[in-house]
Design goal:
The chain is about 40% helix and about 10% strand. By secondary structure, the protein is mainly alpha-helical. Helix 15 runs antiparallel to helix 19.
């Protein structure tokens, strides 16, 4: 079988994390099977669809590393790839269904639909029980009413039978014969509804597998009825688990950032985001957590999907980002630091050698590139908060003479210079041999005086990155 899969978003907003996961699964399966991954834009909602959303969506997919073989920006024979450009195709097949007695014009007005719906509710029946009033109308009569200018929709003539299919994740699924009635396929404005145009497109584009989230499962009932009516072979349906928040509800804005663009703007690594999303509903056959998706090859199979809802946990995503960050070179990490640190910050005035040394010092202390902002005061701020540890250490009898010595040595240097590691070694040797300050008193005292903290990265490296004027000010605070 030639595998053809598609990701079919609506350009009514920015790319959602859940949509990105669907696109990823389609992309990985096409890649694993040497198949074709298609991007189709479902923009029949004219009021909400915007070209800027489509452009942003394509850019976000590219940022994630999900590239399509066919789509609106790389057309092929199966196009057009925007549904708004396929209305003549939808009309052709709706006309065919009408001529074959599988669909019909319905002239129910909005007012009549309200009355019928209320009647159904009072009789405890499904509303669609009364929506098929015109299914037996003589075609010639229907034609006269259309030519007279009456408003109408086109409804599918439901054969009223059970629908059973095998989902490659859910197993066998059966819908009762009264699941749907004579549903609309073409609106009164001539535009197709989702389930109809989706089937026509998937049929004509020869999609072999429909990979999508579980919340589309109920759509499958209408879609299979339409496939059968068109005499089309059914694709394989793959309904993957839903993404949920901590409250077990479907992931939405109330759970925090849900659009890919927000993660891009927060400088998450796309490789980390994709790695994490891949495991929300799918498991690696070697039970790996951290991996490069490009190395999966044919190990990405449909058998590894889970039925259970997948909990989206930002803390876990941050952990994945940390692991992928560790694989970057110091130069690459410095490049990201330069993006997240405000342009007017003195960090940007430092030499490349200084920045790389700073980057290497703090790489193992961050999960996100923006975390570096918390550490900039370690080298750029004259003052610091005096916490309980500070107040304790500063009272030790060894701390004051230590601070006086360091201050006197620092004042011999140029304010804008930075002490060398060798010079710092000389100071520490003097404190140990001449002032007899050793062990905890020496190392913790020096750290508290020069950094204001009782813990942190390699002290010698940190001090060598800090201006003398800043270190002098800190010693003065310790002595005040």
């Amino acid at each position: 079988m030639t595998v053809r899969v598609r990701f079919a978003p609506s350009p009514t907003g920015y790319l959602h994390i859940g949509g990105a996961r669907t696109a990823l699964y389609c992309y990985l399966y096409a890649k694993a099977t040497a198949g074709t991954y298609v991007l189709r834009i479902e923009d029949t909602d004219q009021a909400r669809s915007k070209i800027e959303y489509e452009d942003a969506l394509i850019e976000d997919l590219k940022w994630l590393g999900i590239t399509h073989t066919e789509g609106p920006d790389c057309p092929a024979v199966a196009g057009p790839y925007r549904q708004s450009e396929r209305n003549n195709i939808y009309k052709k097949y709706s006309d065919q269904l009408i001529s074959e007695g599988k669909a019909y014009p319905c002239f129910l007005t909005e007012e009549e639909l309200i009355v019928l719906t209320e009647k159904a509710e009072s009789e405890k029946k499904a509303p669609h029980a009364y929506h098929g009033e015109y299914r037996r109308l003589d075609p010639s009569e229907a034609k006269k009413r259309i030519e007279a200018g009456e408003s109408y929709v086109i409804r599918f003539k439901n054969p009223a039978k059970k629908v059973t299919f095998k989902d490659l994740v859910r197993g066998e699924v059966t819908f009762p014969e009264d699941m749907v009635g004579d549903f609309v396929i073409i609106r009164s404005n001539g535009l197709p509804v989702y389930n109809y145009c989706c089937v026509v497109d998937d049929y004509l584009m020869k999609m072999s597998h429909i990979i999508r989230a579980e919340d589309h499962l109920n759509n499958t009932c209408r879609q299979i009825l339409l496939y059968n009516a068109l005499g089309a072979e059914l694709p394989h349906f793959v309904h993957v688990s839903l993404l949920v928040g901590e409250d077990k509800q479907k992931l939405s804005k109330r759970h925090g950032a849900t659009s890919v663009s927000k993660y891009k703007n927060m400088h998450y690594l796309p490789s980390a985001l994709m790695n994490y999303l891949c495991l929300l509903g799918w498991s690696h056959p070697e039970e790996k957590d951290i991996f490069d998706l490009e190395t999966l090859g044919d190990t990405f199979t449909l058998e590894r999907f889970s039925k259970s809802p997948a909990l989206y946990d930002i803390k876990k995503l941050n952990y994945f980002n940390e692991q992928h960050l560790r694989k970057l070179s110091v130069e690459e990490i410095d490049g990201y630091f330069s993006k997240v640190i405000p342009t007017d910050h003195p960090y940007h005035d430092q030499t490349k050698e200084w920045r790389l040394c700073f980057t290497e010092l703090y790489t193992d202390k961050i999960q996100l590139f923006s975390d570096v902002l918390d550490f900039l005061p370690d080298v750029f701020t004259d003052t610091f908060s005096k916490d309980d540890n500070y107040n304790d250490v500063i009272t030790w009898e060894t701390t004051r003479p230590l601070a006086k010595y360091l201050k006197s040595e620092l004042e011999k240097l140029d304010d804008n210079s930075m002490p060398s590691k060798e010079l710092i070694d000389t100071w520490m040797t003097h404190l140990k041999k001449e002032l007899k300050i050793k062990g905890k008193a020496l190392f913790m005292g020096t750290r508290i005086v020069l950094t204001g903290k009782n813990h942190g990265p390699d002290l010698k490296v940190l001090v060598s990155l800090t201006k003398v004027s800043t270190l002098v000010q800190r010693c003065s605070l310790a002595l005040s």
